[in-house]
Amino acid sequence: MNQITPFNFEGNQVRTVLIGNEPYFVGKDAALAIGYQNTRKAIRDHVKAKYQREERIVTPSGIQTMTVISEPGIYQLASQSKLPSADPFQDWIYEDVLPSIRKTGAYSVDKSQSGLRAKRLAIMEDNKRTRQANALYAIAMEVTDENSKEYMLQEAAKLITGRDMHFDNQDFNGYSATFIAGVLGVSSQLVGRIANQLGIKSPAGESNKYGHWVMRTTDNNSYPQWLYTDEGAKEIDVELHARIEQPA
Question: Do residues 30 and 14 lie in contact, with contact meaning Cβ atoms separated by under 8 Å?
Fold first, then answer.
């Protein structure tokens, strides 16, 4: 039996539960928070069956059977909606809730009105930059001239990170999981999981057509980072879009 944890999104209760250390969301709660009126239809139309399941959940009212949806299912439910609250909901899930759940099993943010206003403005600005970067990335993937492609990808990277992306080894042109996540509008954790599931990362210290390991250095320590090639980034892009396609 799974214990449920309620969170709040702009006055809407969104209940979550950990199943096998993976976060799931009560489908009805998520659909209502996004703005769907017919929650059953929204889940049926937009969430693949493999991303939803029936679970017996412990609630204050007793044990109830609920439809819960996984992280990819949440992405499907939000990304297919044109409702105005869909983008803020998706940002809230990926930027606040999921990282907090994975780190502590809890969720806490600044609940003050000034804090909420500042966060909403920051999210709106981030969304604008992400849309611009996504457009540049799409154009770059169609350009055959390598110099033009590299320039556009660097500009897209600056929109996402707010700084120039210069890699430690200048002879290697690669993209971090954070950069790819920003362009595709998902979390860097999801990019890493997809890469691991596809098996495209080589053993530590080695390289392949999908990417290359480099060493990053901070003031305190050094750590390895996987940088993706164009082909590696395309594999992530193709797999992500395959996951969010609606059933025929």
Answer: yes
Q: Compute the distance between CA of residue 179 and CA of residue 233 in angstroms, rounded to an integer.
A: 10
Q: Which two tokens stand for residue 131?
A: 């849309």
Q: Percent of the chain at pLDDT above 90? A: 13
DSSP state of 204: T
3-state secondary structure at position 24:
strand
Distance CA 225, CA 69 (A): 31
Q: What is the dihedral of CA 236, 240, 242, 246, to 10 degrees?
A: -170
Q: How far is CA 44 from the centre of its chain?
A: 22
pLDDT tens-digit readout, 107-161? 444 444 444 455 555 555 555 666 666 776 777 677 676 666 666 666 766 665 5
Q: What are the E-state strand segments in the chain?
A: 2-3, 5-9, 12-19, 22-26, 52-59, 62-69, 207-208, 211-217, 222-228
Q: Label residues 129-141 b or e (16+ Cβ within 10 Å = b).
A: bbeebbebbeebe
- Dig out the tokens for 129 from the structure: 């930059």
**Torsion angles phi and psi, residue 199, rounded to 5:** 70, 35
- Name the 3-class secondary structure at 124: helix
Please give the structure tokens belonging to residue 186: 């998902």
Phi-psi region of 62 (alpha: psi -120 to 50; beta: other; left: phi over 0): left
Residue with tokens 């009560």: 26
Q: Show Cβ contacts of residue 118 under 8 Å, excluding neighbours closer than 6 positions.
A: none
Enter the tokens of residue 247. 């059933």
Using an 8 Å Cβ cutoff, are 89 and 80 in contact? Answer: no
Q: Say if pTM beats, i.e. exceeds, 0.90.
A: no
